[in-house]
Amino acid sequence: MSYEMSNILFEKAKTLMPGGVNSPVRAFKSVGTNPIFIKKGFGSHIEDVDGNTYIDYVLSWGPLILGHCNPRIVNALKNQLESGTSFGACTEIEIKLAEKIKEAVPSVEIIRMVNSGTEATMSAIRLARGYTKRNIIVKFEGCYHGHSDSLLIKAGSGALTFGTPDSKGVTSETAKNTIIARYNDSDLIVEIFKKYGEDIAAVIVEPIAGNMGTVPPKEGFLKTLRKVTESYGSLLIFDEVMTGFRVSYTCAQGLYNINPDITTFGKIIGGGLPVGAYGGRKDIMRMISPDGPVYQAGTLSGNPLAMVAGYETLNALSEDPSIYNELDKKADRLCMGLYESMRQNGIKVEINRVGTMMCMFFTDGNVHDFETATKSNTDLFAKYFKAMLKRGIYLPPSQFETFFLSTAHTNEDIDRTIEASFEAAREISA
Ligand code: PMP
């Protein structure tokens, strides 16, 4: 496989953009190789600028649950394009998508569209603070909620501490209002609430963590969050930017039967176009401007192209009741095969999966939080990533990312991937 054109473009990109990219993981830094530049996508596949094709398990980091260039989405977009790309004014399609989401997710009574997951979580935090008139938020180590200041905080020394900024430019004053807790640790969250509960505006959580690899919630964890926030008058925010319409049509909250106060969305509800949204209980959402005193706005919010792509995606997902079952079966086939490829070559891995969110950790033990996730052998992952890439399999270029499937992935794609994984396992264990 030649990467000549990709390498030329990357050299040029580096002279124009930080690290040559518009979002850090795209630079492939943690796998120690140059990124590929993508020319086009079709179904379950992408093609790079050198003409190499790959089975795509990144799917734009989750949005493309119907695969690339699904004809239904493409047609809907073409129709919308001919009527205009943006008005910054009211359109009917915003109502249609809002209704569609509300139908699927009963905890969402009122919803506001924004342009990214980051905007959604940032606005949800502001809303929670405005509603409760409290300052502190609790987030979990290893959960990512976009890059707004108060969420870009990492754990200090040990849990039950206020965090420290995770990025230069985030002030320690901001970090002081964010408490970092341990994912899946119900006892700790109860402790935190005993100590600070009266001042906590909200707990924000990925109901299935997808940004430290995939880490499902332990039995009872989300229930504890629901209970403790309720009893202290704090809000529970489910960040379903990744899980929303990915793990089931009723999202993670439907899967685990927990109603949060606010939910954030992104990815799938935009069908591959830039989108985000936050919604929840009516009395809380009525605090948002122009109904209430919490300000939030956007020139391109509710953009008709994004709304159309999202609406058609949700239509496709809701019309065929077997879709999620089929996806689940395919994901199971894939994970079983990947596991075997490692086991037969003496490589210890732990695979976590919920529906079509999955991750293969190069580690020996159970992965249930940030600490256990980071025990993974990232050097071995990097070798595996490269061995798969050269065999035409495009995995997320980091150990701590989730990979996805789309309805366009066939059993043939999966079997080819497993075959490649056997070869890759032999190569990296040699
Ligand atoms: N929340 C979660 C759970 C995410 O996975 C992401 C992005 N991967 C975000 C928020 C931020 O979304 P965006 O990149 O669209 O700003």
From TrEMBL:
Record keywords, A-Z = Cytoplasm, Isomerase, Porphyrin biosynthesis, Pyridoxal phosphate
* Catalytic activity, reaction form: (S)-4-amino-5-oxopentanoate = 5-aminolevulinate
Q: Where in the cell is it found?
A: Cytoplasm
Any one Gene Ontology molecular-function term assigned to this protein's record:
glutamate-1-semialdehyde 2,1-aminomutase activity
Record PTM N6-(pyridoxal phosphate)lysine, positions in chain: 267
A GO cellular-component term linked to this record:
cytoplasm
Gene this chain is encoded by: hemL
Q: What is its EC number?
A: 5.4.3.8
The pathway entry for this protein reads as: Porphyrin-containing compound metabolism; protoporphyrin-IX biosynthesis; 5-aminolevulinate from L-glutamyl-tRNA(Glu): step 2/2
Where does this chain mainly localize?
cytoplasm
Name the top EC class. isomerase
A Pfam family it matches: Aminotran_3
Q: Where is the signal peptide?
A: none
Q: Does the keyword Isomerase apply?
A: yes
Which organism was this protein described from? Thermoanaerobacterium aotearoense SCUT27
Protein name (record): Glutamate-1-semialdehyde 2,1-aminomutase
Q: Which family does it belong to?
A: Belongs to the class-III pyridoxal-phosphate-dependent aminotransferase family. HemL subfamily.
Supply the InterPro entries for this chain.
4pyrrol_synth_GluAld_NH2Trfase, Aminotrans_3, Aminotrans_3_PPA_site, PyrdxlP-dep_Trfase, PyrdxlP-dep_Trfase_major, PyrdxlP-dep_Trfase_small
The source's superkingdom equals Bacteria
Q: How does it assemble?
A: Homodimer.
Q: Which GO terms describe its biological process?
A: protoporphyrinogen IX biosynthetic process
Cofactor(s) required, per the database record: pyridoxal 5'-phosphate
